[in-house]
Structures are given as C-alpha cells and as structure tokens.
Design brief:
The chain has a two-stranded antiparallel sheet. It contains five helices and two strands, in the order ααββααα. Helix content is 43%, strand content 9%. It is mainly alpha-helical.
C-alpha cells in the first residue's frame, strides 16, 4: 500500500484519509483477497478454457469482427475500468443502432443470443480477475487508487 506522503496531492484530503486509515489496518485482508482471486481465477480458467475456445471459434465463424468486446464500467468510487466480454452482436453494432439492446434486437447474432441467455458472454471477465482489474468478490485494489498492495 502506498504511503500517505506518496499519494497525489488531490487525494490528500480528509475524506480519503478516513478510508486510507481503514484500509491500512486491512492490508493482510487485501493481500489474501488478491491471492484468492488468483487461485480461484486460475481454477475457473482451467475449467472454462476449452468451452471458451469453442465459443471463440463459433463467434469468429458466424460473423465478421473480433471475438471479444470491451465494455466500460464505473466502480462505486467513480473510477472507470474496462471489462472483456464475448461479442454477442454484429461488428460495429453501436454504430448501427441504439446504445440500449431491446428484446428481439436484430444486431444480436444467433450465437450471441445463446451466450446472453446462459450468461456465457461474461466468461472472458476471468482475464480481468487474473490481471487484477476486477475481483471474484468486491472491489479490487486497482480500482481504488490509494490501495496499491503488492504480494511481494
């Protein structure tokens, strides 16, 4: 975890200090959470690797465009981050229609409809867990600027 003195000036305020002090006392918990994310993420990846390869091939052969879709999300604290998902719509779907997907949207591919129905489009998020951008449970250290914890 960064020292208080090493934080950017805009973060050295009473509101951040309150949470910084709380997290300072939970350093071991944060390290254990990251270790859990790595172990659980690796296990999930081992189990889902072959289905993910099959899904990737199916997406690639069904329509033009990449296999993955990157989506921007916002944390509880307003920090933006991006997640991986399998692409379930035609390429450039955001330029063809609205930003909101409605029932029966013709931009959704047949494979995409299946993936969405069973939430399989979210399997690639395991890469976000392994990279530390996301967590199996709760907020991650990367999504809180003042909680840089190293496993070393």
């Amino acid at each position: 975890m960064r020292k208080w003195e090493d934080l950017p000036e805009y973060m050295k305020c009473d509101e951040v200090k309150e949470y910084y002090d709380i997290l300072s006392k939970k350093k071991l918990s944060l390290v254990m959470k990251r270790a859990f994310d790595i172990v659980a993420g690796t296990c999930v990846l081992v189990v889902t690797a072959i289905p993910m390869i099959v899904i990737s091939v199916k997406i690639a052969t069904e329509s033009k465009g990449g296999v993955f879709y990157r989506q921007e999300r916002v944390t509880t604290y307003g920090k933006k981050f991006r997640i991986y998902k399998f692409r379930t719509m035609v390429a450039n779907a955001d330029q063809i229609g609205s930003a909101v997907t409605v029932s029966g949207d013709n931009r959704i591919t047949p494979t995409g409809a299946f993936l969405r129905k069973y939430r399989l489009d979210e399997l690639p998020q395991i890469f976000d867990v392994l990279s530390g951008d996301s967590g199996i449970i709760g907020t991650t250290k990367k999504n809180l600027d003042f909680t840089r914890v190293s496993l070393a």
